[in-house]
Specification:
single chain, about 250 residues, alpha+beta, 2,3-Dihydroxybiphenyl 1,2-Dioxygenase, domain 1, 6 helices, globular
Length: about 250
């Protein structure tokens, strides 16, 4: 099993981006993790159906998140978090590929592994395993915050890469899933059980990063109207929140 379980954004102002996500996507905050304060950060986790958006921001100087924000030149997509039920096998694969692990965390029934973006390309990749039907990063009561009237789930992410095919192959090796090389008009894509990761060429000067999130919405026009009501420019191609373009994309 490989699921896209969580997508993280990094922001200069956490609450501003959280408020925009709430206003446009119709989702609510389930949890603010007190433990990440030891990393000089604060966050908010918002359920999107059975998946999650997270917004992190620095509260102390010289954090990894703050440095990443500076490299990207402002608010940005930050991390793709995958859930597996075979964490040990992925750990072994990561070691065999020589991919550096920059952070590990274990709690009762939960373990994670965050990989160095210089060794993966595209963005931070984290691989987690969770026993049972909970999700440790979202706290114990996240289901009470689920709102699906507007947005029902996350169906894909888009990563800008200097070499999309090479980065796609690297993620394919790490995750043990085949890469669809794509037709002439389609990007290389890696398909998970519930979502797709697309690798596209970099545009502009921001470098590699997570630039797009596809969301399953009840009504694409409603998403655009909610964005406009929130004072955010929107069109048929979506709305930019926290440096990431959110696109209405029905789940296949």
């Amino acid at each position: 099993m490989l699921r896209l379980r969580q997508v993280a954004l990094v922001a200069g102002e956490r609450d501003r981006v959280v408020d925009q996500l709430r206003a446009v996507l119709g989702i609510e905050v389930a949890y603010r993790d007190p433990e990440i304060g030891r990393l000089g950060l604060h966050n908010a986790v918002l359920p999107v159906g059975e998946q999650f958006l997270e917004v992190v921001a620095a509260v102390d100087p010289d954090t990894a998140a703050e440095r990443y924000l500076a490299r990207r030149g402002g608010d940005s997509g930050y991390m793709v978090i995958i859930q597996t039920d075979e964490h040990a096998a992925h750990r072994q694969r990561v070691e065999e590929l020589g991919v550096r692990v920059v952070a590990r965390f274990d709690a009762e029934g939960f373990t994670d592994m965050q990989l160095h973006p210089a060794d993966t390309g595209g963005a931070f990749l984290e691989i987690d395993q969770q026993d049972g039907d909970g999700w440790h990063p979202a706290g114990p009561d996240w289901r009470q915050a689920v709102r699906t009237e507007v947005t029902r789930g996350i169906v894909g992410v888009e990563l800008e890469c200097h070499d999309p095919t090479a980065v796609g192959r690297r993620w394919s090796q790490i995750l043990g899933r085949p890469l669809d090389a794509g037709a002439a008009d389609a990007p290389p894509t890696l398909r998970l059980d519930d979502a797709a990761i697309s690798f596209v060429p970099t545009a502009g000067e921001r470098g590699e990063g997570l630039v797009g999130v596809g969301v399953d919405v009840a009504d694409a026009e409603l998403l655009q109207r909610r964005a406009e009501q929130a004072g955010l420019p929107a069109d048929a191609d979506g709305v930019v929140i926290g440096g990431v373009r959110f696109r209405a994309q029905p789940r296949e």
